[in-house]
Fold these 3 entries.
Entry 1:
Amino acid sequence: MHYYGTSGTNEKGHLTIGGVDTIELAKEYGTPLYIYDIALIRERAKGFKETFEKLGVTSQVAYASKAFSSIAMIQVIEEEGLSLDVVSGGELYTAIQAGFDPERIHFHGNNKSKEEINMALDYGIGCFVVDNFHELEILSEACRSKNIPASILLRVTPGIEAHTHDYILTGQEDSKFGFDLQNGQAEEALKLALAKNELKVLGLHCHIGSQIFETTGFKKAAEKMIEKLAVWKQNYDFTSQVLNLGGGFGIRYTKEDTPIAPSEYVKDIISEVKTLMKNASLSMPEIWIEPGRSLVGDAGTTLYTVGSSKVVPDIRKYLAVDGGMSDNIRPALYDARYEAAIANRPEADCEETVAVAGKCCESGDMLIWDLPIAKAQPGDVLAVFCTGAYGYAMANNYNRITRPAVVFVENGAAALVIKRESYEDLVRHDLPLYAHK
Ligand SMILES: *Cc1c(COP(=O)(O)O)cnc(C)c1O
């Protein structure tokens, strides 16, 4: 049993998080229920931010709010002094509703609409991460018509793709995102942007992948970008004030995953960037990073109530819970793996291996295929760990299942931060064709 963050057990032998008994939470708020360990989120945030400070490198650590966006979550990010990435009008709206300083909001996305761009300009956000030529045009038009300047980063694809333990160099990267660095697109974008008075080019951005456990990919990407910056300094007298290296820092979902600490990622990457900049005779830019998963992933736990089971002789035993792909689509979407335990007796010895199934009408609705676990009974509470990133954020109403509640726990206290949806919520936007008979 691996205990994340502040997790442990109490005198009843129940799983606790943030000093709160999870079984009490299940009783009070029902299941499925997402619980976030706020002390762990703060620890991760400080791990990134304070490392930059110690190294004396000006930085922005922007939480990629797509991992989990809610008003309370963004308030925690604000308290920790981080910046924020948004990728849609909806995420931007949530940030503004949370009272987040617009100056520290960065707007991402490969197809921002004119409405979203206008909205972001009206709020006065700090930076647009421009993805493509179309955006360059519509952003500059919007700036001119409003007479508001915009700071931008150009998103480039450096030809590096990183996955978990390795990275690949892809000559011309086949990605829907960004300007290609190798084939001249990025340079073309820079020239266009520099010619527009309403746009201030702060620098370059890249994001090479997700769930990355080592720093080689980040360092290779920085190398590719800095090579170009040296040329662009010569050719256009362009100085990049900012180098944004994206997110993707890996976390531990199962015992096979071996991430390094936030401080280690930062130290290693910074030391390489410093060397590369020095060798290119360029001055050190601000370094921005964009962790999503690594700030909230292992701080999240989902509680379910165990219901039916089915034994397929000689093959496996299915254990069904009261949620599934409606609250965690990652196993179905990308074979994501998780660990879990019975929250009312997490220390009980494992007696069998089960496949944890959801309750949706879809054979692929599985949460875990091979979970060693104590014998679970209907009514037991199953805790699935490390569900804090892309869990609630991707939750849906398939089968008209209501989205669960979210509770934050810290220092022995629990706060409900997102209410469970009701059946009324499900039909809120439905309009009848006929009056009710
Ligand atoms: C998704 C994304 C992130 C965050 O990725 P994580 O794997 O959650 O850290 C950061 N930057 C960009 C541009 C992204 O698309």
Note: The CA atoms of residues 2 and 419 lie 29 Å apart.
Entry 2:
Amino acid sequence: MARLAQRLPFATVVFRNPCRNGRLTISVRCNIAGCPNMAEMVAAEAGGSVLAARYVARMAAGDITPDAGQARVVGALASLEQRIASRRLARKSSALGWLFARREDSIPRVRGLYIHGAVGRGKTMLVDLFYESVAVRKRKRRAHFHEFMADVHARIFQVRKDMKEGRLKDGDPIAPVAAALYEEAWLLCFDEFHVTDIADAMILGRLFEKLFDLGVVIVATSNVAPDDLYKGGLNRALFLPFIAMIEQHMEVVRIESPTDYRMEKLGGARTWYVPAAHETMADIDREMDKVWHRIAGIDGGAPARVTSGARTIPVPRAGGGGARFTFADLCGVPLGATDYLRLARTYHTLVIDHIPQLDQDTRNEAKRFITLIDELYEKGVKVVASAPAEPEQLYLGTEGAEAFEWARTVSRLHEMRSDDYIARPHGRGDSHASGNTTGLVET
Ligand SMILES: Nc1ncnc2c1ncn2[C@@H]1O[C@H](COP(=O)(O)OP(=O)(O)OP(=O)(O)O)[C@@H](O)[C@H]1O
Ligand SMILES: [Mg+2]
């Protein structure tokens, strides 16, 4: 460590594992400008934690601000990373069981991690970093919690059908579903864990019990502590054993960061860019570039792909949990509500360039934009956009459903510019207002 510190005088970051056996302490000094391979070097010096090394590298590159609350969570994640690495070694030696007489059930159980805290504190960012860094190549899955549960319900439905039609022996449908999930992935990372649906609440206990028995490791982010899950929900007493199970199988850590970084980047700033009298569209594009770099970091992110059912949506730039598109990328192609919902769950902010003026001739684009804004609004996604005019002057058509629906879009776009909206958690809209877009049919 002394060798590295001498060569790279910059900052010292200490990660401490806040969880029970808080043994992990990593101290790192770094200066990325002088050392392009710093992440790997720090990983070597910091007890092999790739996650800690990448976190420090991003800090040293100026992408993220030092934050003691986050550093504690990095410590907990780095410790989990190491427990997982030890488990892999144990599994390998168990595979040679005839030599070492080890059995699968002698492999130590690994407790997962439940990270909770206020909005914009970097929970999703840290879990993404963990997911990329952890030494599990194949059997891991990162999912939005609601999408995972939708998948679980679909699988239970299919198993029940197979049982009814005699293809499977009668029994508890949750057991084969848990076994299939475990075969696909033994490390599950859930973003935005929260329970509001009674159908989810009533199967979670049995599902997680089976998953934990099989040795599945779960990492989750949430805006609420386990004790507050499904608060006020119907039959909550039946849900309480599930909370106890979480606390038994997952270390619970609160992210104590004082900063809402999303608010810091977007709060009080312009989010709807219309050229003022002295401005050209090129000026606006430059302003949009600046906003994008605040979100995605100095390198401006990279192209990405989002899978939506059988479809793959190309994302021109993605970084820092945000994505940047032109209006034509999003609404000039046949995407629908499900695709927009996938984007809304994947990114906390969308930067949309060049929303044009729309009219009856471009009503399909207008309908898609209405649907897009409904999905983004419902999921609390922040929007930064450039356009030739304010929302109310953008749709020029006067007939048909779109003219009427546009009024809702205008109202939402205005609300989405407020600090109250920007402070909303990603993934949960507060609104139960009519966001129904089923009546809108492509013509
Ligand atoms: N230490 C930091 N310095 C600068 N930016 C940061 C830092 N931590 C996180 N960010 C950025 O802040 C934004 C919000 O982070 P993130 O989406 O991870 O928050 P969150 O806690 O998951 O919020 P929510 O509860 O709404 O889901 C992201 O763009 C992320 O890259
Ligand atoms: Mg998040």
Note: The chain has three domains: 1-66, 91-254, 261-422.
Entry 3:
Amino acid sequence: MGPRRNSLRYLNRFLSVREAASLLSSRLDPEETKEILLFLTDKKYHELFFSGAKIPFREITRFIRGRKKGIPLAYLTGEKVFMGFRFRVDPSVLIPRPETELLAEKALLLAREKNLTDLLDIGTGSGCIALSLAASFPQLRITATDISGKALRTAKKNLKAFPSLTGRVRFIRADLFPPKSYGSFDMIVSNPPYVPDKEWKDLDPEVRREPGIALLAGPRGMDSIERIARKAPSRLKKGAYFLLEIGYNQKNRAEAVLKKNGFKIEEILRDFKGISRIMVSRWPD
Ligand SMILES: C[S@@+](CC[C@H](N)C(=O)[O-])C[C@H]1O[C@@H](n2cnc3c(N)ncnc32)[C@H](O)[C@@H]1O
């Protein structure tokens, strides 16, 4: 048998979870090893090693090679958990971040407390904010926009995983705001692009595998924030809320922009690193 057939036979082998774990952990860190094993076996952690699951060797090499090339793990698995829900992700969308869960949690809290119904999610990407909110609070009707047709295709695939939300969440291709005919909103939420253009080259190479259009926003990273803050008042009902995620050093500028456009800042939430990250503001009654 020639060397090629030998290596094909090798690639087509199946490994036990222990063999796969030892191979993965010799190349990758333990957290990633665990995540990959859970993904490939579709098991819970407590049953992983005793399940008798078999893992294709080919898949293990795909993960090791992909990670060595710097492809984000979520793009290799094709999924990311956000607010307890599993979302499909691919290189057309930003990988949902834990700090954005803070924004979504706060939005959910306000929606429940104040009985809000009409919500706009600007720059929806994978649809993670819109879909997790709609799935968590049945009263919400959500319009979600993105300028990227590819991102919207991924968001629509994610919607299919929530059949009960069809009709309550609409994804629309638009430059920030949907047409006026979509009405006005009780709350606008947005995790817009906010990285200054010149910081692109300094970003982690893995982050640079995510779409530039999801991250970059002009010389100071404020272009989208300023445009949203300027137009939002004409699309909000009286007393409505505006929740905005911002960059690590944008608190003062974002505060000034919001105030200049007539918003009252209610709260600024810090992320796990203590960085001011979510601006919670309100349009006057
Ligand atoms: C930081 S990502 C956020 C994605 C998702 N909401 C999340 O939190 O994971 C910003 C999103 O805004 C979209 N975007 C950029 N410019 C836009 C514009 N002018 N109008 C609408 N969406 C825009 C990008 O395509 C991207 O999906």
Note: Residues 93-94, 96, 100, 123-126, 128-129, 145-148, 151, 175-176, 191-193, 213-214, 224 surround S-adenosylmethionine (CB under 6 Å).
